[in-house]
Recover the amino acids of this structure.
């Protein structure tokens, strides 16, 4: 029996103080990004291309259009924004810096509000990461900023015959059991100023990817930074440098470099719901 006051599990309801906090987050992000030259875009709720964005197709909420073509509720905004700007807007705009404030949906009824940013054709992640930290600072918080490089777990899984799930689930015992000195050093590497010492002993393929992390950290103006070279995020599009803004078990923001239709871009998403809980408390 469904009572009149019930809402589906996973959906959101904000009122009074929490609604005010939500609006504060969205207004702050909009002001920061507009000042930095970003334009706003709102993408359709329904999409033909969500299978390109979500690893587990079972998470998509599917229906059909008037011609019986399969479409999905928006489960991710990144690929749709890039495709719409490049393919649909095309010659109507040369603007490459976009932001959006809109929810995404996952099966069966999970609703998640986001502030997203995409810089199309930009290969340098610091261009996006700078905006993420500006928003966080203006909200008056300083959670942990974790910098990773998804290429490192991929290279190690191929050369050491490890499973990518070992990195996804942070299977430290398995890494240490291999008794490889440079791998052990990678396990314990946390601070940007320790990178040079580890670079001196790792294989060349890993060295190049670690130096990308070092260069990104050098461009940051943020007080609370760690590196996590073995962190792996299972994403369909992020392919190299990657970051998370985290506090305890909560992820407030996440972003990285990605490629869509051969266009290299950078972007991130701020998870509004997690921030609302933190700021309202």
């Amino acid at each position: 029996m469904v009572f009149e006051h019930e809402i589906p599990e996973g959906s959101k309801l904000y009122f009074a103080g929490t609604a005010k906090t939500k609006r504060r987050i969205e207004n702050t992000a909009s002001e920061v990004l507009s000042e930095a030259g970003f334009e706003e875009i709102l993408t359709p709720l329904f999409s033909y291309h969500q299978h390109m964005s979500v690893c587990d197709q079972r998470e998509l909420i599917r229906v059909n259009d008037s011609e019986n073509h399969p479409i999905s509720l928006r489960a991710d905004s990144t690929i749709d924004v890039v495709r719409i700007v490049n393919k649909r807007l095309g010659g109507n705009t040369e603007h490459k810096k976009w932001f959006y404030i809109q929810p995404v949906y996952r099966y069966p009824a999970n609703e998640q509000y986001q502030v997203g940013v995409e810089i199309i054709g930009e290969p340098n992640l610091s261009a996006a990461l700078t905006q993420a930290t500006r928003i966080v600072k203006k909200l008056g918080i300083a959670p942990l900023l974790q910098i990773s490089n998804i290429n490192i777990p991929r290279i190690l899984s191929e050369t050491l015959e490890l499973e990518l799930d070992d990195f996804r689930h942070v299977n430290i015992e398995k890494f240490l059991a291999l008794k490889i000195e440079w791998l052990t050093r990678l396990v314990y590497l946390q601070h940007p100023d320790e990178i040079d010492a580890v670079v001196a002993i790792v294989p060349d393929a890993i060295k190049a990817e670690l130096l990308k992390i070092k260069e990104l950290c050098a461009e940051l103006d943020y007080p609370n930074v760690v590196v996590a070279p073995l962190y792996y995020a299972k994403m369909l599009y992020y392919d190299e440098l990657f970051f998370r803004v985290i506090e305890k078990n909560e992820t407030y923001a996440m972003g990285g470099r990605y490629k869509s239709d051969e266009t290299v871009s950078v972007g991130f998403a701020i998870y509004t719901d997690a921030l609302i809980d933190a700021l309202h408390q």
Observations:
- The chain has two domains: 1-142+260-281, 151-232.
- Residues 151-232 form one domain.
- The two ends are 33 Å apart (CA to CA).
- The chain has a mean pLDDT of 93.
